[in-house]
Amino acid sequence: MDFTEVPEVITLHFFEEDCSLLALLLCDQAVRALQEVENLIAVVLEFVLDLFFVPLAELVAILVVTFGLFEVFGFLDVAERSPGSTARSNCIFVTD
């Protein structure tokens, strides 16, 4: 190799490093943009689900309290069981 080619080799080396840094920067920006889109989708989905289920839960609570639907939702006889106990066997298959 001749020493007259050294500046050209160094120039090409720096150009190669600049291209690799530019590629890394573009990949990083693409990943960040994808994360932004994922975050936006998650926030919109959470909003839609909250918009539907929170009023529904409040409506169920109002109906339970208003119409005394405790036995329909399994709130009947709760005071007789301790918090960690299982349901009694004679109350599971009750028919009229």
Architecture blueprint of SSEs:
Blueprint: H1 6-67
> Strand percentage, roughly?
under 5%
- Report the strand count: 0
Total discrete domains: 1
Q: What percent of residues adopt helix (DSSP H or I)?
A: 55-70%
Estimated radius of gyration:
33 Å
Order of helices and strands: H
| Shape verdict | rod-shaped
Contiguous runs where pLDDT drops below 50 for at least 5 residues: none
Largest beta sheet, briefly? none
Oligomer: single chain
Q: Give the terminus-to-terminus CA distance.
A: 101 Å
Structural class per helix/strand content?
mainly alpha
**Mean pLDDT score:** 75
* Total of DSSP H or I helical runs spanning 4+ residues: 1
Model description:
There is one protein chain. By secondary structure, the protein is mostly helical. It has 1 helix and no strands. It is rod-shaped and about 95 Å long. The model has no long low-confidence stretch (mean pLDDT 75).
